[in-house]
């Protein structure tokens, strides 16, 4: 295995315990809750986060401090190796651009990957990087692969409420009121950089049908060759809705029996704070074969 260290952030959904087992390193994302700083999976659990969110606390996201990033890098570089750093999408946070700027001071030994992933698709990138490192690929080769394949994934998210989009200023109060009266459950998408509207439905059942249809379209068109090569996986993510997520996993496996459903994970808290609890997401992503 090449002497390459893999670093990501907690937006990947990889816990500190899981990171230790995998032999990677996860920077915890900072949150401000009612003005007090917390760190995901360090002094802030998923359960505590949703307690604050449901209690109408003021929740905002931040990025890892420069010191926390550079201290980790410098410790990992002591044995002469290299680093592949896989942060959340640059379209959703400035943490990627910050890390890219810092990496310039390390003589080409730190490769920051902007492959526009988040949550379970970001996690898949980490697993791909690990596999490539095991095959002896250099940090530069791993980073190049991850960037070249950055568009080979899709995320579709069904929201249970419009409350948090309104609270975060991503929806006007009037639109949120109308949506609530009409019981609208929007389906959002992430295709690379941004979280965008996809479709509007009125029930979770319909939302799941829309997501399955969208995945089917992607897998039969954009990703058809990858499917034929056995290079695609499906994953599920959720916000405080594990039972629905496990049920959706079974439905997706039945809908796409030829494609493995790999992860069923909590959605990144950096996304969760903007969309609230009860959200359900499904993704498809290309993997290393």
Task: Give a structural overview.
This protein is an alpha/beta fold and 289 residues long. The protein has 12 helices and 13 strands. The strands form 3 sheets. A 6-stranded mixed beta sheet has the order 10-9-8-13-11-12, sandwiched between helices. The chain has a 4-stranded parallel beta sheet with strand order 2-1-6-7, with helices on both faces. Strands 4-3-5 form a 3-stranded antiparallel beta sheet, with no helix packed on it. The longest helix is centred in the C-terminal third of the chain and has 17 residues. The radius of gyration is 19 Å and the shape is globular. The protein starts with a strand and ends with a strand.
Structure, briefly:
With 289 residues, this protein is an alpha/beta fold. 41% of the residues lie in helices and 23% in strands. A hairpin with a 4-residue loop joins β9 and β10.
Structural class: alpha/beta
Total strand segments: 13
Q: What is the ordering of alpha helices and beta strands?
A: EHEEEHEHEHEHHEHHEEHHEHEHE
Q: How far is it from the N-terminal to the C-terminal residue, by CA?
A: 17 Å
Taking strands numbered 1, 2, ... along the chain, how are they ordered across the largest sheet? 10-9-8-13-11-12
In which range does the helix fraction lie?
Answer: 40-55%
**Low-confidence segments, ≥5 residues, pLDDT <50?**
170-179
The amount of beta strand, in percent, is 15-25%
Mean pLDDT: 90
C-alpha Rg (nearest Å): 19 Å
């Amino acid at each position: 295995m090449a002497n390459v260290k893999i670093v990501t952030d907690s937006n990947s959904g990889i816990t500190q315990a899981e990171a230790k087992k995998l032999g990677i390193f996860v920077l915890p994302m900072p949150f401000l809750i009612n003005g007090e700083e917390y760190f995901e999976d360090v002094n802030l659990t998923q359960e505590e986060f949703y307690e604050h969110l449901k209690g109408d606390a003021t929740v905002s996201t931040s990025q890892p401090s420069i010191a926390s990033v550079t201290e980790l890098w410098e410790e990992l570089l002591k044995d002469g190796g290299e680093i592949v750093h896989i942060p959340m999408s640059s379209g959703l946070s400035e943490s990627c651009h910050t890390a890219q700027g810092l990496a310039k001071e390390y003589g080409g030994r730190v490769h920051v990957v902007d492959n526009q992933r988040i949550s379970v698709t970001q996690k898949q990138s980490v697993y791909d990087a690990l596999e490539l490192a095991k095959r002896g690929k250099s940090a530069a080769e791993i980073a190049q692969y991850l960037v070249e394949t950055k568009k080979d994934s899709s995320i579709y998210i069904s929201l249970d409420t419009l409350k948090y989009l309104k609270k975060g200023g991503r929806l006007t109060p009037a639109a949120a009121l109308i949506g609530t009266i009409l019981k609208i459950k929007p389906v959002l998408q992430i295709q690379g950089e941004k979280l965008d509207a996809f479709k509007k439905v009125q029930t979770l059942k319909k939302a799941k049908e829309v997501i399955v249809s969208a995945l089917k379209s992607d897998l039969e068109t954009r990703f058809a060759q990858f499917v034929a090569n056995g290079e695609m996986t499906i994953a599920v993510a959720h916000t405080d809705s594990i039972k629905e997520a496990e049920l959706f996993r079974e439905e997706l496996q039945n809908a796409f029996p030829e494609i493995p459903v790999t992860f069923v994970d909590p959605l990144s808290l950096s996304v969760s704070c903007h969309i609230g609890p009860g959200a359900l997401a499904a993704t498809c992503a290309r993997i290393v074969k």
